[in-house]
Every structure is written in structure tokens, then in C-alpha cells.
Amino acid sequence: MFYTYLIVILVFVVVLRPISTLIHELGHGIPALLLTKGKVTLYIGSYGDPKDSIKINIGRLEVFFRKNPFHWKIGLCQMHDENISIKNQIFVTLMGPIMSLLLALLVTYNVFFANWNDAYVSVLFFFGISTYFDFFANIIPNKTPIELYNGTIIYNDGQAILDLLKFKRLPPEYEEAINLYDDQQFFKAGELFNELIALNHKQDYIYRLAISAYLNAHDYHKAKLINQEFEKKNNKANFDTHDYNNSGLVKSYLKDFSKSLKDYERSLELQPDNTLAINNRGYTYNLMEEYEKAIIDFDKAIALEPDHPYPYNNRGLAKIKLGRTDEGLKDIDKSMSLDKNNAYAYMNLGVYYYDTGNYKEALEKFNLALELDVNTYEIRDRIKETKEKITK
Description:
Blueprint: H1 2-35, E1 40-44, E2 53-58, E3 61-66, E4 75-79, H2 86-113, H3 118-139, E5 146-147, E6 153-154, H4 157-167, H5 172-182, H6 186-198, H7 204-216, H8 220-234, H9 241-253, H10 257-270, H11 275-287, H12 291-304, H13 309-321, H14 325-338, H15 343-355, H16 359-372, H17 379-391
Parallel strand pairs: 1-3
Antiparallel strand pairs: 1-4, 2-3, 5-6
Helix pairs in contact: 1-2, 1-3, 2-3, 2-4, 5-6, 6-7, 7-8, 7-9, 8-9, 9-10, 9-11, 10-11, 11-12, 11-13, 12-13, 13-14, 13-15, 14-15, 15-16, 16-17
């Protein structure tokens, strides 16, 4: 009898809990894939910790299964799109508990009405407990915060839905700003978010949206002003890894390098595998002409995301500046193979030709970069300097 109970417990921990958790998180993840265009990540057995996990990629869906079921926490669904309508957020959040409830009802039916032997009924009974737990633990609002692996906090599904319903009571300008952002009219969106803040709608997510909008609009001075107010609002108490990364990026573009590096360090303390922060810190080292340090960061970013083009072209520039020209050009070629419209790859090629005195070729590459992205950092200054060299 003892061994029977032991086997049931092992089956519950090793098989049933993972299945019920997976069903719950897929309840979030599948609608998220249907309603957003970005990647969706599921953490089964952890709150965002990719370490000691089996990773599975299926298109835009990324799943991390924690290997040791005895160290499991419930799970997490993370949508990588920054801006999702409140209605869609509510739907995605609600579908997790609904999937758990549907599974619980299906299991209950089989326990009481299906013709199974006692052993299967016992297993299904414990499975039913797991599924009902997932439903009630998530649907009943709980104000106790859940700390994620990156140091940020979230709340259970029920509390999150209540909070989202409060957001729906925001003025219509909020929805208008979201729509502008989705249409990539970033400056107009930033202005509306800024107006909402001025009208005392000072929720953290509105600051985040305003900063992101101004960054995408390449208005770094306005992004700086909003970021400074956000920093003072709660002395960075609610800053997560992405907040520190964006803060660092604003300061990098405005050449406040020492403060930007501090922000990237803090971002990476909260999430060591944040490839955006790693790449942005390397980019800042490039701007500071500290190329050896930059290459270390780009190597890390490439190891984490080998198909991301930007660390390659940034590393290529750093290697060229250090005299490792062949390696650098190979990196830039790799970047172009991953993204043929990568303006910064063309700009860095232009820098190579400029440094070697081939100003006509440099001007051609700089113009291509400008054509691909008019907001490529300092590209107009580079074009002006190159034309001056040609006319001398």
C-alpha cells in the first residue's frame, strides 16, 4: 500500500502537475499567438527562469520546461509585443483559468461517469485536484504579488483582470494613443501619453508607453524628460529590466555614457540574459570607442540569440576598429544575410570605407543607410563629413 501511494505521488508530481500547468499556460499562450504578432514565451514550472529548463521552439511560441518537477512553481505566459489592447489582454488572461476549468470538468466527468478501473480513477482524481487548484488559485483575485525571475512583480490572473478592468476606465485618449502606437505613429502616440501624464494619469505603464513611443520616434530629449519623471515617481522602485534598458538607451543616444552604463548594469542584474541590454551596452561601448569591451557584450548577445542581426554588425564595426578587418567584414555580411534592410550594417560598412580613405564608396553606403532608415543614428552628420572629404 505504501508503494502504491508513493507511485501515485510521483505520477502526480512528475506527470499530472506538468500537464495541468501546461494546459493552463497554453490557455494564455494560444490566444496570445492569435492576437499578437510577436513571440510568446511559456515558462512551465518557473516564473520566468530559463535556466535548468528544456527549451522548445514552435514558430513564434517558445516554451521552457523546468527539468526538476520538485522545484516547480506554477508557470508564466509572457507576450513580447509591448502594446496590446486592454480587451485582448483581458481575454488572454481569462483564457488560462477557463482552460483549467474545462480540463477540471472533463476529468470530473471521467472520474464519476466513465468506466475506468480503480487505478485510473485514483490517478484521475488527483489530476482533478490539480486542475481545480489551477483554476481557483488563479481566478480568485489575490493582492499578494508574485516575484518573477527578473525581479519584477505580477499578480494572479484574477487580480490582473480586475486591474485591467480599471484601465478600461481611462479616458478615450488612452485607446487613441494605443492605436497610434500600433499604427507606428510614434510621435503622436508619445504626445498623447504625455498629455495623459500631465492630466495626472501617472500609472507606470503609461510612462513606459510614452518612453517607448518617443524612443521609436527618435525624440530622445522628450524620452529623457518622461524617463526622468518616471525615475522620480517612485525612485525606480518599480523599474524592471526593460525600464532600465530603455533608460540606458535614452542616455546612450544623448551621450550620457556613464549613466547609461549604470542602467544597463542594473538591467542585467535583474535579467542576465536580456539580449537587448547586452547589445545596447556593447553599442554604447562602441560609441565610447571601447571596442574590446564591446566585443565581449556582442559575443554574449550572439550566443543568446544567434539569429539577431544587430550584434553581428555592431561586433563587425568593433573588430574593424581594432584592425581585425576580415573578421569584422564577415560579421557585417552575416548581419546583412539575416536582415538585408539593416541600415546600421550599411552605415558600419560606410565607416570602414571612410576610415580607409575610400570616400565615394563610404558615401554610397551612408546614403543606402539613410534610404533604409532616415533615423539611423548620426547618419546625416556622416554624410556631410564624407561629402566635405570628397570636395576637398
